[in-house]
Amino acid sequence: MRIARLLPFCTLAFAAPALAARPPGKSSMTKPAETKPAETKPFDLEAETRAWHQKRVANLTSEDGWLTLVGLHWLKEGDNRFGSAAENDLVFPAGTPERIGTLTLKGGKVTLAVQPGIPLTRSGQPFTGGELRTDANGQQPDVLSLGTLRFFAIRRGEHIGIRVKDTEAQARKQFHGIPTWPVNAAWRVEGRFEPATTPRKMSVPTVLGTVDEMSSPGTIVFTVNGQEYRLDPVQEPGEDKLFIIFADPTNRTESYGAGRFLYADAPKDGKVVLDFNRAYNPPCAFSPYATCPLPPPQNRLKVRVEAGEKRYGDH
C-alpha cells in the first residue's frame, strides 16, 4: 500500500530609454518579480483515510482479492486426485469437472498430470501438465485457470497446499462493505522507535496452529491517554514498511476476534507514525481458507483501539 521540484528561472528585462537618459544612481534593470513559495496542501485526515479505505476495498473485491477464496487443500506425499467428484482426494467446487487431474507431491515439488480434454491454462496458454512453481520464498506461483476458477500451490512451513479462487464466489457477490469507527485524529499517534541492537526473529503464531519466525527490526513505543504501550513490528522480505499484528479489547465484540493488521512507514529520525484509523481486518475475517498470522503475546494491547475497521458480518 517522488516528485521532482522544478526551480523557476527569473528573466532579467531591460527597458527603454537608453542608460544615458536614466537618473544617476538608478538601476538599469527592472526588479525581478518575487516568487511565492508553492502552497502546501493541508493534510486532511478524513479524506486521506477515506481514499485509503476505498483502495483497500477495491483490492479486497477485485478478481484476485481475498473474497474470491473458495478452497484450500493440503497435499499428502504422493498422488492427490482432484475434481468435483466426492471420491477425489481434493474435492473442488461443484460445477467443475468431476476429475481434473492428479497433483503429485514428491520431495517438496509439485507436478500436475491433467485429464485429457480438460481446458486448463497457465498464463493464458494451454497447460497439459508439468511441474508447478509454489509461492515459497516470495516467488510468484504458477496460476492455473479453469473457467472462473484459479488455483495455485502455496507453501506454509513444511506443508504445501492448493489455494482455489473463483471470480464468481458468493462472498464476492454478496460483499456489503466493512463498518469502521469514525476517523479520529487522536488515533494517529507518533511513537518512538527502539531499533534492535542485533537482528532478531519473532515467533508469530498462525491460524494453522503453526509458528512462523519473522524478522523484527525493533519496538515502537507510544502513548495513549498518558499510558505507554509497546508494539513489535515485523518486516516482510523486500518491504521497507513496518507490519504490525495486534490485538486489543475491542476484539471481544466490536472488531475481528483474532486481531487486526496495521502498516506504518519506516522510522524517520527515530519516530514512527501509527495511524490506527487504517487498522484493518486480516483475510481470515472474510474467508476460512486464508492462512493468517495471529498477534504475538507482546502485541496484545490493554487499551481499546476504537479506530479502523470493525467486525465484518458474523466473523
Overview of this protein structure:
The chain has 315 residues and is mainly beta. Helices cover 6% and strands 33% of the residues. The chain has helices at residues 45-60, 170-173; strands at 69-74, 78-83, 90-91, 101-106, 109-114, 121-122, 125-126, 129-132, 144-146, 149-156, 159-166, 188-205, 211-224, 227-231, 242-246, 260-264, 271-275. It has a 6-stranded antiparallel β-sheet, with no helix packed on it. The model is unreliable at 1-33 (pLDDT under 50).
Task: Give the topology, please.
Layout: H1 45-60, E1 69-74, E2 78-83, E3 90-91, E4 101-106, E5 109-114, E6 121-122, E7 125-126, E8 129-132, E9 144-146, E10 149-156, E11 159-166, H2 170-173, E12 188-205, E13 211-224, E14 227-231, E15 242-246, E16 260-264, E17 271-275
Parallel strand pairs: 2-3
Antiparallel strand pairs: 1-11, 2-4, 4-5, 5-8, 6-7, 6-9, 9-10, 10-11, 12-13, 12-17, 13-14, 15-16
